[in-house]
Amino acid sequence: KTDLQDVKLLPLVEFLELGNKEGTGVWLDSDEAVETLAPHLDSTPVVALNFSSFSDGRCYSSAVILRRRYAYQGEIRAVGDVRLDQLEQMSRCGFDAYELACDQDREKAMKFLEQNFSYSYPSTVREMPLFADRYINN
Fold it and tell me: CA-CA distance, 31 to 114, in Å (whole number)?
């Protein structure tokens, strides 16, 4: 089996032109539709979603679509402007690998991901909205 760190990531256009070859993953920018990957997901080990800026949240939606709609089991990697305070929500949306922005501390990120949070925004992990959970359980 291919070590996922060694998977060559191709931009979406090149990936679609060349076809999916063993050991090849795909890189999507936030303005590219993740739905175009549907026919290729069973044989794509890594989908990297590029956060072009900290404030662009479209990749969160792409990760949720991959996990929920397509039941994608491969690695979803966050790349680009990835910051510590995004990691918890990223993990709840289906990301399972992260390439931090160069000014972020890897050790802090590891500790941050090990924390358990009592309440979070709705996600792929939690079906019931937070407000409903609080209302029902009080």
Answer: 31
Contact predicate 33/61, CB 8 Å? no
Inter-residue long-range contacts of 97-101, CB under 8 Å, 24+ positions, other chains counted: 97/4, 97/46, 99/48
According to the model, what pLDDT value does residue 118 have? 54
One DSSP character per residue, 36-48 reads GGGGGGGG-SEEE
Q: Residue 65 gets which letter from DSSP?
A: I
Place of tokens 């501390």: 105
Find which of 37-51, 91-105, 116-130 is predicted with most confidence, using mean pLDDT: 37-51
